[in-house]
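New to this. Look over this protein:
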Amino acid sequence: MIEDFIKNYFNHPKIYDEMFLNGDHYRDHYSNFINNFSKESLENLNKKEELAKKLFMSQGITFTVYDSGEGIEKIFPFDIIPRIITSTEWSFIEKGIKQRLKALNLFLKDIYSNQFILKDQIVPINVIYSCPHFLREMHNVNVLHDIYIHIAGIDLIRDHDGTFYVLEDNLRTPSGVSYMLENREITKRLFPDLIPQCGVRSVTEYPAILYKNLMSLSPRAVSNPTIVLLSPGMYNSAYYEHTTLARLMGVELVEGRDLVVKNQKVFMKTTTGLQQVDVIYRRVDDDYLDPLVFNPNSVLGVAGLMGAYRKGNVAIINAIGNGVADDKAVYTYVPDMIRYYLNEEPILKNVPTYQLSNKDELDYVFANINTMVIKKTNGSGGYGMLMGHAASEQETEEYKIEVLKDPRNFIAQPTISLSSAPCFINGKLAPRRIDLRPFALNGPDGISIVPGGLTRVALKEGSLVVNSSQGGGSKDTWVLTS
C-alpha cells in the first residue's frame, strides 16, 4: 500500500521535503509512522479523512473568512498525515524561540522606558516613531514582572537546505492554538495506536500552563483571582478559539459590555453584582480596548480600562503596545536586539528583509520584483501581499504605485521555497508547502513551549500561502521523544 503511495509521490529536488530524502527514500524519523501507516488500506484512509471532516463540523471547529464585507464560516481543512519533528530539531527550535522572546521582551521594556536601543542607534528612531503600533500611552507604565509578551506564536519556515527561518513574530493576540489542540484530538481518534507507538510528545498541557501563568500574574494577592478572556464576540474570525480556551481553562468568556471600570478597577457584571477582575486575557486589538484612549468609536473594549491598567489594578495579557515589536520593519532588527540585550548570536535566522523606505533597497527590490514577496509592515492573514513570481505585469505595476505612496508601510523578502510535506489529497499522497507556528508561554517562572505547534498547509498545488484565509489548512505536528 505505502509503496504505491511513495512510487507516485513527486519530490521536487530543490524543495526540502519533511518526509522524503530523495526518490523513495524516507527520513529515519518517519519510519515508525510509515511502518504503521502502511497497514491502512486506501478505503480506510478515505473513511478516516471523511470522519475528520465530520468531527470538525460536529465540534464547530471553524474560522471565518471575510469576503466582500461578509463573514463566511468555514471548516478548517485538516490533513490526516502528521508532520514529524525530531527531538534534536525541536531542541534547536525551542532554544531559538526562547532566546528571541527574551530579547523582544527586553526591547519592549526598553522602548517604553529608557530607549537605550534608540540612543545607541541599534534601531533607527524613525522606524519606531513611525510605527502605528508604538503607543506613547504605554511610556513608563509599570508592567507586572516586566513581562510584555505572555503568549507568542512564532512562524517558522524551512528553506531548500533544511534551515529554519523565523518568518514572523506574532506578539499581539496570536491565534491558532485551539487548532493545534484539536488536530491532536482528531489524530487520536483516527489513529489511536500510532501516537504512543511512535513516541510523540503531548501538547495537551497548553491550557493548564496558560492558566497557571494567568493566575500568577494577578496584581491582587488573593488565592483565587478572577480571570476573564475578553473576546470581540461571535463574529470574530477566531471566536471558536476564544470559546475553546475559556472552556479548557475554566474562565469566563466576556465581551466589552460585560465589564465596567469603577475607581480605576475593572469589574465583571454578574447576576449577583459586580465582581472585580484581576487578569484579562484579551483577544481584542489595542485600538479597540479603551474608547477613552484609543478608538473613540469602539464598542468592543471597556471605557477606562487603560486607567486601571496604568494604576496596576488589572493585568492585561498580552501587554498593550506589543505591536511595535511585531512590525515587519522592526523585525529586521531582531538579530541586532539579541546581540545588544543578550550578547549572544541569534540561534534562529531571520529571512533577509529589505526596508522599502530605504531608496537603495527599494530600487533593488523593484529591479528584482519577480523573485520577491512584498508585504505590508502591519498586514496579517496573507492579505495585501504581492507574490512577485506569481503576479501579472499589471498587478505588479499597480502594487508598485501603492508602495511608492508610503514605502515605510512595506517590506520585501526574497521568495523562500518553503519545505513540503506529504498530504493525503484525493486518495493520493501529494507534496504541499508548510510552515510551523509553535506557541510559547511566558510567565514569572520563565518561558514554556509545548512540544508541537500548528503546522499550516498551503493546500492549493504550487501555492506558498499557508494562511487559512487564503485557502490553507493544517496538520497535526508530532515532536518525537527521541
